[in-house]
Design brief:
The protein contains three helices and nine strands; from the N terminus they run H-H-E-E-E-E-E-E-E-E-H-E. By secondary structure, the chain is α+β, with helices and mostly antiparallel strands. It has one domain.
Length: 162
């Protein structure tokens, strides 16, 4: 049993090919890393994926309120402003269905959400968790900003069909 688990872990770690996504300009990335307050009446949302080798070959969709933010890859972040003082649903593609995180976002504040990969039955899955501001700023500062793009499925509900 231990041997089978070890083989599965080494296989997942052995996927050393790297997924690539379109990147924002260095200027845009540096501006986002200033962590300025969002525009009036809005909240800022940083969604990031750490630069780790686990799942490096996988790209995973990210949505906010059903709007495609883009496909993530290792070592990237997205910045997106949403209407403040209301609840928002963040979602990421996973193995069998999207995983969601519902957050109340106050206007004038920035929020940080980590997208992390986890081992799945057939392929790696993804999930989301909110992190505190200090942790989020430290992580985002080490990463590069991805360009807002298209997702692999047309909408968040399409991910349920895959």
């Amino acid at each position: 049993m231990k041997k089978t688990a070890a083989i599965a872990i080494f296989t997942a770690l052995g996927m050393t090919g790297c997924a690539s996504v379109d990147m924002a300009s260095t200027t845009e990335s540096q501006a986002a890393k200033q962590f300025a307050a969002p525009s009036e009446g809005h909240a800022g949302v940083y969604v990031f994926r750490k630069d780790t080798p686990v799942g490096a070959a996988l790209k995973k969709d990210i949505w906010i309120d059903g709007e495609c933010i883009g496909e993530s890859a290792k070592g990237v972040f997205f910045y997106h402003q949403v209407e403040g003082d209301r609840e928002h649903t963040l979602a990421t593609e996973s193995e069998f269905s999207p995983n969601t995180l519902v957050m109340m976002l106050e206007a004038g504040k920035n929020y940080f959400v980590e997208q992390y990969l986890k081992l799945g039955v057939f392929v790696g899955g993804a999930n989301l968790r909110q992190v505190d501001e200090n942790t989020g700023m430290a992580e985002v500062s080490r990463l590069s900003m991805a360009e807002k793009g298209t997702c692999s499925s047309e909408s968040m509900t399409d991910a349920n069909k895959q």
